[in-house]
Structure prediction request, 167 residues.
Amino acid sequence: MGDVKHLLLLRHAKSSWDDPALADHDRPLAPRGIKAAKLIGARLRSDETPVDLVLCSSARRARETVELVGVGGVSVVEIEDGLYGASAGELLARLRGVADDIDAVMLVGHNPAMHDLAVALIADDGERAVGKFPTGALAALTFAGPWPALAPGHAELVAFVKPRDLG
Prediction:
């Protein structure tokens, strides 16, 4: 058994559709999303959840979510184009490539992949545990490392936090 690893799956907060001319990749957060990201950040700080590495989709709404959650000051943040539009399987493959000296990763991305990944990784009934995965929701999982061993059904859901439960 390896060390316990922590995986935080954060779906970007609510984005704005105010400008229909904007490409999907370029949509900013809506006011509700800004509030939600700040609430999730405050919850992470109160839990004293350590994050060594943030893997973030290159979409503007995902990058803004990371900035507002506020983990960038304590973590290495990697903005990756490949996380935008990635499937759950592609996200899992990326996580399996994380270096072993990293104990806690926050992955910031999009549905349906975030929901599908969470459901797949959770050992118990992931679908029942998570249900819907709304914007700004955070699933906190733990598993026995190393990262290359991360596999469906091998993680435990520690917490599932939705912004509306905080505000």
